[in-house]
């Protein structure tokens, strides 16, 4: 299992993406799955960076492991409790003028990953995604 | 990400290369904000775009709204990964994708 702890700041995304891409390449992940996983990582980490710590600096830990031909990425932070899976799904049938800004990110994650799980444990948000890579 | 913009007879053509995500979407937003006022139509060429996240989708939606009051916007040369994002988010129905 690989693990990386970062400050929960948007400018850390590139460092996280390099960590994820290196791991996926080692696992022999296909290009399409890698791009979809990268998008999911972007959505999840940017949410943490923007909302988990409204009034203090904080960090996020990301672990990565392979399990039965799938990759499992887990994001842990000790910011405000937030279960993104409880967020209402956006109405994707709305036209451009009725579209609210936001809410699409986690929806995309749920649509493109095979499994998304959330738990609040020991004062921490634990969000994991699983995606078949071959 | 690289952005190549050129204006041709009122049509602004913008090629976007690489990844359109949280970190790079503001660059595209700034480039469009600078060049769109002079454009009658907008063409976004995604032939070299690897992927798009929701931050990129927000920029597209805002550009689409601005351009729909003028000559419109279209997105061309979309790869399979980007197309799937457009499909699941309903953007395929909003945008003109060729």
Explain this structure to me?
The complex is a heterodimer of chains A (134) and B (98). With 134 residues, chain A is of the alpha+beta class. Chain A has a single domain, classed as Histidine kinase-like ATPase, C-terminal domain (Heat Shock Protein 90, 2-Layer Sandwich). Chain A is built from 3 helices and 5 strands, in the order E-H-H-E-E-H-E-E. A 5-stranded antiparallel β-sheet of chain A has the order 1-2-3-5-4, with helices on one face. In chain A, strand 4 and strand 5 form a beta hairpin. The radius of gyration of chain A is 15 Å and the shape is globular. The mean pLDDT of chain A is 94. Chain B is an alpha/beta fold. Chain B has one domain: STAS domain (Transcription Regulator spoIIAA). Helix content of chain B is 41%, strand content 33%. Chain B is built from 4 helices and 6 strands; from the N terminus they run E-E-H-E-E-H-E-H-H-E. In chain B, strands 1, 2, 3, 4, 5 and 6 form a 6-stranded mixed β-sheet that branches. In chain B, helix 1 packs parallel to helix 2. Chain B starts with a strand and ends with a strand. The chains are: A alpha+beta (134), B alpha/beta (98). Chains A and B meet through helix 2 and helix 3 of A and strand 4, helix 2 and helix 3 of B.
Q: Which range best describes the helical content of chain A: under 10%, 10-25%, 25-40%, 40-55%, 55-70% or over 70%?
A: 25-40%
**Content of β-strand of chain B:** 25-35%
Helix and strand content put the structural class of chain A at alpha+beta
CATH fold field value of chain A: Heat Shock Protein 90
Q: What is the succession of H and E elements of chain B?
A: EEHEEHEHHE
Helix content of chain B: 40-55%
Radius of gyration of chain B equals 12 Å
Weakly predicted, low-confidence segments of chain B: none
- Total helices of chain B: the number is 4
**Multimerization status:** heterodimer
Q: Distance between termini of chain A?
A: 18 Å
What's the CATH superfamily of chain A, by name? Histidine kinase-like ATPase, C-terminal domain
- In what range is the share of β-strand residues of chain A? 25-35%
Most extensive chain-chain interface = A-B, 28 and 25 residues
**Count of alpha/pi helices of chain A:** 3
Mean pLDDT score of chain A: 94
What number of domains of chain B? 1
- Using DSSP, what is the number of strands of chain A? 5
């Amino acid at each position: 299992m690989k693990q990386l702890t970062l400050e929960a700041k948007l400018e850390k995304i590139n460092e996280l993406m390099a960590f994820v891409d290196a791991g996926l390449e080692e696992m022999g992940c296909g290009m399409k799955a890698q791009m979809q996983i990268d998008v999911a990582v972007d959505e999840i980490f940017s949410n943490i960076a923007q909302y988990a710590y409204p009034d203090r600096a904080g960090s996020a830990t990301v672990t990565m492991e392979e399990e039965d031909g799938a990759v499992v990425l887990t994001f842990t932070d000790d910011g405000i409790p937030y279960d993104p899976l409880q967020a209402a799904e956006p109405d994707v049938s709305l036209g451009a003028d009725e579209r609210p800004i936001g809410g699409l990110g986690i929806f995309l994650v749920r649509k493109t990953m095979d499994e998304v799980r959330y738990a609040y444990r020991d004062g921490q948000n634990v969000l994991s995604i699983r995606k078949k890579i071959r | 990400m690289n952005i190549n913009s050129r204006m041709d007879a009122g049509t602004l053509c913008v090629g976007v290369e690489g990844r359109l995500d949280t970190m790079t979407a503001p660059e595209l937003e700034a480039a469009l904000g600078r060049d769109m006022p002079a454009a009658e139509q907008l063409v976004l060429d995604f032939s070299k775009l690897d992927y798009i996240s929701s931050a990129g989708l927000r920029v597209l939606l805002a550009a689409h709204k601005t351009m729909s009051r003028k000559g419109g916007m279209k997105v061309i040369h979309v790869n399979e990964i980007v197309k799937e994002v457009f499909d699941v988010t309903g953007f395929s129905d909003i945008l003109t994708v060729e």
